[in-house]
Amino acid sequence: MSQDGAQDADAESVARLRAEIEELRLRLGEAEETIRAIRHGEVDAFVVAAGADADAEDDRVITLETAEHPYRRLVEAMHQAALTVAADGTILYANRAFARAVLRPSEAILGRPVGDLIAEAGRPTLAEVLARGAGARGEVLLLRGDGESLPVRVATGEPAGEGVACLIITDLTDQRRLAEVVAAETLSRSILEQAVDAIVVGDPGGTLIRAGVAVRRLCGRDPRGLGFDEAFPLIRRGGAAGSPFVLPISRVISGETVRGVEVSLTAAEGARGRDLDLLLSVGPLKDVEGIVVGFVATLTDVTELRRAEEALREADRRKDEFLATLAHELRNPLSAIANAARVARLAPDEASGRGWALDVVDRQGRQLAHLVDDLLDVSRISLGKIELRKEALDARVVVERAAQAVRPQLAAKSQALDLALDEGPLPVDADPTRLEQVLVNLLANASKYTDASGRIAIVARAEGGRATLRVEDDGIGIAPGDLGRIFELFGQVDDSIARSHGGLGIGLTLVRRLVELHGGDVAAESAGLGRGSAFTVRLPLAREAAEAPAPAVAAPPSRPPAGGRILLVDDNVDGVSGLARLLRERGFDVRTAHDGPAALAAAEADLPAVAVLDIGLPGMDGYELAARLRGRFGGRVALYAVSGYGREEDVRRAKQAGFDGYLVKPVDVDMLLQSLPTAAAPRAGR
Ligand code: ADP
């Protein structure tokens, strides 16, 4: 090596040494600074790298236990858990409360990513809290060392340095438990307060400790602190009726239940002041371990239910009574008719005897028909199946018509009928037939409950915007106590009196319901027994006067031109032959048949203009017969249905089956003639 070469090499190594010295000096400076920082308490922990090829996770974080800052002591003494976390989520510091909370030693906490200690679902919350910085908070589950999880709130405090977050962690277990307790208490309170039934809870000694609003309403005071029997002086109903009910407290506490005992409670002062019917059930109250800690009693108010039951029983009783009355009312005209028939048979040639018998049959038959009509009407109204055919009319006209209708009945008892009608019209919007029915019922009652030669009056006038129709009599009168019930269905003042007058106790029910259907009302007055009665119907006056008042008496049916043939089909041979005779007398050509096939044959032989078919025929019924006649003869024959039922749906069904008209039994010859079309006119006008 040359000298120059040796000098160069020296210079190089001097330079390298200098550089090394410079670097060592820098490191020394850093180390001194670190030591100074440690000495001054500016460092809490340091990370010792595990080596170049080891995982960053194996780095060790060493906490400087000797760091004795006042804030550290404070943080360690804190009941709340606290952490400092590096920007990448590594836990730099955890206080003892945190270690206790997660049941892990500090070594297992420090240097780990904080996310590892949080249940997965909470990690986004944590990330958000960290990102939002000081003051942010969220709720997450901490994963404890024993595998359980702990509900906590994490909140960020002021940053503990550049990129170092400080987290304060609050255990929510107690708060949750408290919330659950509060919720349970709130629930039980609202059950007690809002239950419809009265619920009380008592202790094993029988003293009431909880009671809701329904209970306070029942006994008129707050029963807490009172014994059950003192708060509820109950009387037994049903079996051991009348004796006081004493709660068998010891039996209940030993596990027995008392179910649905019927008791009554005289409502205390401050309560609604009436006797209540209650259903009582009592059972033991157990805690979660099944130990009896008291009892629960429920009191259900069944007063209304009992009242409804009583009303049903009363209705049932009245129905039985009604059936007895009905049998009686039906038997009277039937036996009169049977007797009349015997008289006629005994004296076939004696005109006066026969005439008398026929009058009886006619009158009693009408009476029967009237009864049945009333019955059907009541049932139709009850079922809401009556349709009013309202029209603008003058109520005075209907009054006159009703007066005409009852004159024969009044004449039979030599009773006088006075009419006092307003001068001007009484325009009402009403169904003329139904309104007449109302007045006829009232007038017939007035006659029925007034002695022979008594006086009956109808006063019709406009009063306070209403048409007032008043029927007065000077008859037997009504006791004040009975005024209320005579309008009830089957309501009769006294069975013996009512029966002696005949009647079913439905007339006034019909009157009231029909009047109500018209938007009006009806009231009864009487000064007492023996002092006459007055019934007042009030209907709304129509604004405009009825333009053309209906004629006072219905016009007789126009007599159509001659030439009709009628086929009557009914399996009641007597009924149909009587009707056939009456029609023949009036000039009709009448054929009869008693079943479907015979009717078809008769129609085939001589096509009638009108066929009147009973619906309830044996075998082929009236509907089927009608369909066949229609199918065979089309519109050349008019079809009329006859049935015992006058219900709307029967009429509708008949229309659907192709009938042109519908008649309800018993079919009266005049009624039939009024309904028939001109095609069925008699051969010769009479
Ligand atoms: P019915 O006359 O068939 O018994 P109602 O319903 O027409 O039935 O009448 C009910 C009851 O009202 C009658 O039983 C009768 O006691 C009483 N009543 C009705 N109208 C009069 C009246 N004008 N005078 C006295 N009592 C009457």
From TrEMBL:
Coiled-coil intervals: 14-41
Record-linked Pfam families: HATPase_c, HisKA, PAS_4, PAS_9, Response_reg
Cross-referenced SUPFAM superfamilies: ATPase domain of HSP90 chaperone/DNA topoisomerase II/histidine kinase, CheY-like, Homodimeric domain of signal transducing histidine kinase, PYP-like sensor domain (PAS domain)
Residues of the PAS domain: 67-137
Domain Histidine kinase: 325-543
EC number: 2.7.13.3
Residues the record lists as 4-aspartylphosphate modifications: D614
Keyword terms of this UniProt record: ATP-binding, Coiled coil, Kinase, Nucleotide-binding, Phosphoprotein, Transferase
PAC domain mapped to chain residues: 259-314
Catalytic EC class: transferase
GO MF terms held by the record: ATP binding
Domain of life: Bacteria
Keyword Coiled coil: yes
Ranges for domain Response regulatory: 565-680
Catalytic reactions of this protein: ATP + protein L-histidine = ADP + protein N-phospho-L-histidine
SMART domains named among the record's database cross-references: HATPase_c, HisKA, PAS, REC
NCBIfam families on file: sensory_box
This protein's name: histidine kinase
Lineage: Bacteria, Pseudomonadati, Planctomycetota, Planctomycetia, Isosphaerales
